[in-house]
Design a protein that fits this description.
Layout (H helix, E strand, L loop, with lengths): L8 E5 L4 H16 L3 E6 L1 H16 L4 E5 L25 H7 L4 H11 L3 E5 L5 H7 L4 E5 L3 H13 L12 E2 L8 E2 L7 H4 L4 H15 L2 E4 L7 H10 L4 E3 L10 H5 L9 H9 L6 E5 L8 H14 L2 E6 L15 H4 L4 E5 L4 H5 L4 E6 L3 H9 L4 E3 L6 H12 L2 E3 L15 H12 L2 H21 L4 H17 L1
Parallel strand pairs: 1-2, 1-4, 2-3, 4-5, 5-8, 8-9, 10-11, 10-13, 11-12, 13-14, 14-15
Antiparallel strand pairs: 6-7
Helix pairs in contact: 6-9, 12-17
The structure holds uridine-5'-diphosphate.
Length: 479
């Protein structure tokens, strides 16, 4: 007699930072909506932030749960309870935190042994999981939280080393072997990532590459129509197995679900929506620089003045490492002068909820890949303001390939915006984003991409199908 095989059981294990946890929890939900029993593996403090999202998924009939493993922060020399990158007292502790994740190895292996899932989807920043999974004969799939474009461009630089042939940090070079002519300078990335495989961040990247090669494949939060030439390049020329399953943020459909994604927002959904509802379509610029950027006060002041001088409506998400309630980082009288046309959110914003509102007409972004893809999904043109990580690569995709954005003008990699943008540069970029014929043309292209993104995750869409391909590959491996 024919008996249906039990549903696939997949573990999803994110690196502990908001920009990693958020899309991987989305991924877990997406898997659940494709009939998989999916489990997010994380540490106790991170679990507390997930409860609402998991509850929402379950109410929508999606099979997702969470399993926790202890994170001995104190043993790693970190403050007690410091279980996420955004809880670090200083960004200088990044490598220490990254290394501390090795302490999760024993508990993870025990969990894999007990539960025997069909697959472990683990973050690229947890390279040791490849060995754990291999030891227990569980296929390990890598979740790489960036674009095919960035993966191809970074691999080209790592292998061909074009940055070694220029005579200064600011002399541009073309990234070899890409389908488009993409120019870069040494100031726009951390060359130590690829130039010193023996220690520090270079060793981290070398371990990630090694771990990727040992994996069953890579799941990418992107969609084919966004970057078709780079999907092909990654798969056929670089010979890597990969599935594009995004944009994963599109798994949230209603206001309540969008409003509770990530952390607890510093503004209520209804207050935020009421403000947006009072504005004309496409008339609001939304500015947010991800989960970790803390601009110096001088930069915050220049953003404020630039926004004021632009004359546009705006929502500006401000994050400050210290300073309490003081507003002396804003020009005097700023909040009174922009009252009614400017909304400041101090802390966490319900980003997807805001981006999806019809009144929002442009996005000023630091080019973190999640934000970029959320902006693309919402059909928005962007001002690109890259700072660190692989953000300058993402900028090139937006401005150079998709042509849906304008750069604010940063050219130097820096964690917290040390490449200062003056208020007139901010004003100019915001005006270019919102006013004139070129702005309309960019908006038209962005809208089209947004429609394509939504179709990609619908039944028979390219990402929907590729997720089904991944599940079929896992099922056939089971037999
Ligand atoms: N995010 C949010 N509200 C905020 C800041 C960030 O919802 O106030 C979310 C954003 O939607 C995205 C993630 O946090 O999903 C940030 O990831 P991204 O890759 O854009 O940047 P990172 O924080 O990793 O630099």
């Amino acid at each position: 007699m024919y008996s249906e095989s039990p549903p696939l059981r997949v573990f999803v294990f994110p690196f502990m930072a908001p920009g990693h946890m958020i899309p991987m929890v989305d991924m877990a939900r997406l898997l659940g909506s494709h009939g998989v029993r999916s489990t997010v593996v994380t540490t106790p403090v991170n679990e507390t932030h997930l409860s609402k999202t998991i509850e929402n998924a379950r109410s929508a009939g999606v099979d997702v749960d969470v399993k926790t493993i202890p994170f001995p922060a104190a043993e790693a020399g970190l403050p007690d309870g410091c279980e996420s990158i955004d809880m670090l007292p200083s960004p200088d502790l990044f490598l220490q935190f990254y290394r501390a994740t090795n302490l999760l190895r024993g508990p993870l292996e025990q969990l894999l042994e007990e539960e025997k899932p069909d697959c472990l989807i683990a973050d690229t920043f947890l390279p040791w999981t490849a060995d754990s999974a291999e030891k227990l004969d569980v296929p390990r799939i890598l979740f790489n939280g960036t674009s095919f474009f960035a993966m191809c461009a970074m691999e080209s630089i790592r292998v061909c080393k074009p940055h070694k042939s220029v005579s200064s940090d600011s002399e541009p070079f073309v990234i070899p072997n890409l389908p488009d002519e993409i120019w870069m300078t040494r100031t726009q990335f951390l060359a130590e990532l690829w130039d010193n495989e023996e220690e520090g961040l270079g060793k981290m990247v070398a371990d990630m590459i090694d771990s990727a090669l040992k994996s069953f494949g890579t799941v990418v939060n992107s969609f084919k129509e966004l970057e078709p030439a780079y999907v092909d390049l990654y798969r056929s020329v670089m010979n890597r197995r990969a599935w594009h399953v995004g944009p994963v943020s599109l798994c949230y459909r209603n206001v309540q679900e969008k409003g509770t994604r990530g952390k607890v927002a510093a503004i209520g959904d209804s207050e935020c929506l009421k403000w947006l509802d009072s504005k004309r379509p496409d008339s609001v610029v939304y500015l947010c620089f991800g989960s970790g950027v803390n601009f110096p006060d001088a930069q915050l002041r220049d953003i404020a003045s630039g926004l004021e001088d632009s004359g546009q409506n705006f929502i500006w998400v401000i994050r400050r490492g210290s300073g309490g309630d003081s507003t002396d980082y804003l020009p005097e009288g700023f909040e009174e002068r922009v009252r009614g046309r400017g909304l400041l959110i101090r802390g966490w914003a319900p980003q997807v909820l805001i981006l999806d509102h019809p009144s929002v007409g442009g996005f000023v972004t630091h080019c973190g890949w999640n934000s970029v893809l959320e902006g693309v999904s919402a059909g928005l043109p962007m001002v690109t303001w890259p700072l660190s990580a692989e953000q300058f690569f993402n900028e090139k995709l937006i401005t150079g390939v998709l042509k849906t954005g304008v750069g604010v003008g940063t050219t130097k990699w820096s964690r917290n915006g040390e490449d200062h943008m003056r208020s007139d540069q901010v004003e100019k970029a915001v005006r270019l984003l919102m006013e004139g014929e070129d702005a309309e043309e960019r908006r038209r292209r962005a809208r089209q991409l947004g429609r394509t993104a939504k179709l990609a995750v619908e039944k028979d869409g390219s990402s929907y199908e590729d997720l089904e391909n991944l599940l079929a590959d896992l099922k056939s491996r089971r037999h």
